[in-house]
# Entry
Amino acid sequence: MTTSESNNADLSVVSVIKRVTWIGFWVNAVLMVLKIFFGWYGHSDALVADGVHSLSDFATDLIVLVFVGLAYKHADDSHPYGHGKYETFATLLIAVALLVVAVGLGIGGIRTIMAFIDGSVLPRPDIWTLIVAIVSILAKEYLFRYTVKVGRRINSSSLIANAWHHRSDAISSIATLVGVSASYFLGEQWRILDPVASLLIAVFIVISAIQIGQPAINELLERSLPDDEVMRINDIIKSVKGVKGLHNLRTRRNGHSVMIDCHVKVDPYITVTEGHDIASAVEAKLRDSYGRDTVINIHIEPFKGA
# Structure
């Protein structure tokens, strides 16, 4: 692939990520306004909390839009291994944003529950709170399915993380719907379920943040790829003609790309050119499996027998 083709391919990936993210951005804008307004108007803490969750989606969408262009820039003198960690950093920021939102929602829910226990009468939610919660569930579930499908197709960790943020919002809207429905239909003594729902939303968001943030932390700490992937890479290298063995296989992720270092053993009596050709064949086969952006360092060593 020529440099021009490579640049065009990267621009295409960035364009896809931005298009998907902009769709989510505008859907979140509408849902945020609906949830916060009707939550406030309809006396539902859970729906307001859900609206704040949608507000956090704004931040994560903007993070993806800002960082994705940086992540797909080509390597330069200052970043010889590329800029993939920008995408990892964006993913970690999404997780942190979720945790901050969860803490805020949890504190608010606990305060309302304590006020109810102390004798405060909670107002009955409006019917519109139910309608908005249902619309939110449908919209966010669609966004999740659409975003995660595209994210997996182009292997974008930040897009997949944002998809799970959509799913966490859909789950929180389900909790909102349950809490609001109980408060609306079951009477005054059940209205505590609305702030309880807001507290459950906070728990769901924490779980989602951990699931999103853990892989990003592992990547920033240079953790190896999963064992099954390491075995697969081992098998790919051994399948190349001329490879007699290998050792010191090291792997890690760099944003959307994979990095592989390995010492490959070859016949000690072949020429330097032949050894180089074997290394090139190994690199080509690995890139066929892991993409053209895979960073590969192959060190050729003489095979000295079993």
Remarks:
- The helical segments are 3-41, 45-71, 85-117, 127-154, 157-185, 193-220, 227-238, 272-290.
- Residues 3-220 form a domain with the Alpha-lytic protease prodomain-like fold (CATH 1.20.1510.10).
- Strands lie at 245-254, 257-266, 295-302.
